[in-house]
Amino acid sequence: MSYNFLQVEKKWQQHWKDTEAFKVVEDDSKEKYYSLEMFPYPSGKLHMGHVRNYSIGDVIARFKKMNGKNVLHPMGWDSFGLPAENAAIKNGIHPDIWTRENISEMITQLNELGLSYDWDREVATSSEDYYKWTQWIFLQLYNKGLAYKTKSPVNWCPSCETVLANEQVVNGACERCGSDVTKKNLSQWYFKITDYADRLLKDIDNLDGWPDKVKLMQSNWIGKSYGAEVDFKVKNTDKDLKVFTTRPDTLYGATFMVMAPEHPYVNELVAGTEYEPKVNSFLSELNRLSSIERSATTLEKKGLFIGAYAINPVNNKEIPIYIANYVMMGYGTGAIMAVPAHDDRDFEFAKKYDLEIIPVIKPNDDSIDTENLTEAFCEPGIMINSDKFDGMTNKEAIDKISIDLNERGIGKKTVNFKLRDWLISRQRYWGTPIPIVYCKDCGEVPVNAEDLPVKLPKDVKFTGKGESPLKTSETFMNTVCPKCGGPAVREVDTMDTFVDSSWYFLRYTDTKNDDEVFNLDKAKYWMGVDQYIGGVEHAILHLLYARFFTKFLFDLGLSPVDEPFDNLLTQGMVLKDGAKMSKSKGNVVTPREIIDKYGADTARLFVLFASPPEKDLEWSDDGVEGSFRFINRVWRFVEEYKDILKTGDITINNKFDKELNFKLNEVIKNVTHDISLRFNFNTAISFVMELVNVMYKYTQNAPEINRELLSKAVESVLLLLAPFGPHFTEELWTLIGNEGSIHLHSWPTYDEAALVKDTIEIVIQVNGKMRDKIEVEANINKDDLETLALSTDKIKSLTNGKTVVKVIVIPKRLVNIVVK
RNA sequence: GCCGAAGUGGCGGAACUGGCAGACGCGUCGGACUCAAAAUCCGAAGCCCUUAAAAGCGUGUGGGUUCGAGUCCCACCUUCGGCACCA
Asked: ipTM value of the model?
C-alpha cells in the first residue's frame, strides 16, 4: 500500500495555483533572495537534467522562504534558436507556433514537478515585448561604438548554402548534411567585448561565490598575456613588421621571422617576385584544410621562405622571413620572431628547414650544452649572447629589454588577449532582428528607439537554403530611412541567441515594463542573483556574455550591479550506465515515466539524494524505488500516530525521550547547516532518514509515548522535508491538524541544550590503533580520563610488560597510549 | 602538450578544521507477519582466517610528516572535464 501521490500532487498544485502561492513583489520590510535556474530552450520535453537543475533551485527557494526571505524565483524561455527553424523547414510549422506549443507543454511539466515559480514573471526571449528591449540594448551598444559591422570569414556550408555557427560545425563538417565546411568572407555584426576584457578578467577575483573551476575557465578564455611589441624593419622596403612576444628576453636569439599566411604584407612582399606562385600554391593547399585540421597541434609544421628579410632592431641582424601554418592571423600581430633555442615550435621548424639556432639563455648550473641543443631550452636562466644584458637573469632581462625598446622607439610593453570580439550575426529567421537599416544616401542607420520592436515578419519562406530567410519577406525588407525618409532596406541577419540570454535575469525584476528595459528601483531591490544554478557547459560563453552585458548596463547607470551572479552552482550531469543520457545510446529515462509511476516528490527526492549537486549523478531505478519507500515510510508513520499527537510544552521523562529529543535537535541542526552552507542535499536528506529511523525505534521501545515530543518530531520531519517533497509534506501537514500551508511556516529551530550529553564515549587507542571504548562523564577532566583509559582490562593486557612512553588525551574524543 | 577535478565496500555515496573509515540509501542475507507471495517491520553484513572470539589487512600506487593520515607533503598511475600551434 502506498500513498495516492497522483491525487495528492494534483490537489496541491491546484491549490498553489488558486492561492497564487508563489507570487512575489518587492517588500522593503523583508530581506530579498533571488534564486535563479538557467532558463531552458523550449524543446517541448523536459529531461532529467532539467529536473535536477530545477529541483535544486526549488529547494533553495523554498528553504529561503521558510527562513523569512522574500524570494524571487522566476522561470522563462530562451525561445529563439535553430530547432524551431529546423522544424519549420522539415514540417512546415511556423517557428512561432511550434515554440508556443512547446512552451505550454513545458509549463505543464514544470508544474507537475511542483516547482515554486512566480509565473507572473515569465519571460520568453522570442516575444515582442522582450526582444524589443534586446534590440534597444543593441542600440545602446551601437551608440557607444560597441556594436560594429565588419567583413570576416565565417563558416559556410556550400551544400546548404548557409552560414553555420561554430557549434554547428562538427569535425569540420556541417552538422546537418555532413559537407565540408569552408570559409566565406561576409559582413558581420560584432560586439566589442574586448573593450571589457580587462574588467571581465580582474573582477573574477570578486566572484567569491563562484566555483574556482569556472573562474579559471573564464580567465583562460580571456587569456591575458604580458609581453612586448617589437618593430622589425623589412629589408629594402619602408615596411615595419610588428611582432608580439611574451619573451622579449630572447630577442637576441631571433634567427628568423614567421608570418601567418593570411598576413596582409605577404602579398605585397611577394608580388611580382619568383616567390609569388609558390606562396599562392602554399596558400591554396592550406585553404583545403578544414579549420579543425589546421588548428590541430599534431599537424606537421610547414613553411615557406618568401624571399624577404627582416632586420632585428637590437643587433641589426638580417633574418629570413617565412610564412608557416603554425602562426595564426587572429592572435597578436599575426607575425612572430622565431627563437628556436627557446621555443619548442620554433625549434621544430628550425630543425626542419635547417635554420640557425642561437642560444641566449643558459641554465644556472650549466647542466645543458647550449651550443648543441637537442630541444628548446624553456627554463629560466642566465642571459648570454645578448650584449649588455649578458649575465642578468632572464627574468630581469624581460623588463630591461622592454624598457630599452621603448626608449629607442622600436617597441613597447604590451598585453594581448585571447578573447575576440563577439560575432553576433546569424543568417537565420528565428532570432532577434538587428535594428539597423541601409539607406542609399545615409548608409547604415540605426532604427529609432521609439520604432522598436523591429518585428519578425510572418511571410517568410523556410527553405534551409540561402543566406537569410528574412530576405524573402518584402514587407520586412523594404522600409524607409529613419534619417532622411527615403527608401531603405533592413538588415536581414538576426542576433545570436546568446544575446537574448545575456540580460533576462534583469528583466525578471520587472517583466511587464513597456517604457523601460527594467525599472532601476526594482532591479536595485532584487539584484544581484543570490544563487544561480545551471550546467557547467555554460561556464564560459553564457556567463561571460551575461557579465559583459551587466557591466555595460551598469556603466549606463541602468543596472544597479556590475556583476550579475553573486553565487554560482554548476550542477553535474545525469548519467545512466556511466554515460550521459541520450537517445542514440538508448539510456534515456524521462521525467514523465518517473512522475507517472512514483510522483514528483519521489523524482525530486531521488535526484537530490543520489549525489551532491555539483557532481554527476548516476541514475538508478532501485534508488528511485528507495526514495519512494522513504516517503511512504514517513506517510505510514504519520497516519499511524496522527491521532495521539499533541502540541505543547515538552517534558523529557526518560532515556528514550532524551534520545529522541537529542536526535531531533541534532538533525534539525545538521539539515539546516547542510542546506544553507553547503547545498549538500544528499546528506541533509540522510539526516532526516536517520531521524525517522529513530522515531520508529522510539515507538517500539519507549514504555510510553511522549505525545508532545513525538508531535514536535513529526512536525519537524515534515518541515525539514517540505522543500524536497512539497506535495506530500503539505498533505501530511494538514492531516495532523495544521491550518495553512506548510510552505508558509517557518523553518524549525533546534535547542542547543538538548544536544548536551551527560556521558560520552571515548575511544582508546594503543599506538594509534583503536583497542577499546569507554563511557565517561561528559565533563571529566584530562587526568581522570587518562587514568580511566589506562585501567580497562583490555588496555592493561595490551600494555602489560611494555613501557608507556606517552599518553595523548584529546578531550571528548580519544586517548592514545604510545607503548614500546 | 598545458590547465583543472576526481579515485573510498557489490553499487550510489558519508566522514565540516588530521582523531572510531564506510553515515544514509540501494543490493544481499537472516528473522517476524502470511496458507503462500508481495508489501511492511526487525536484524546482520568492508576484506581475510575462523564454529566463535581475537589477531591481521584495508580509502588508486610508492614514499614521507605525525602519538595518530581518506584528510597534510613528495613522486607516480588511472579516469573525467576545459583549452589547444595564443608566440
From this structure: 0.95
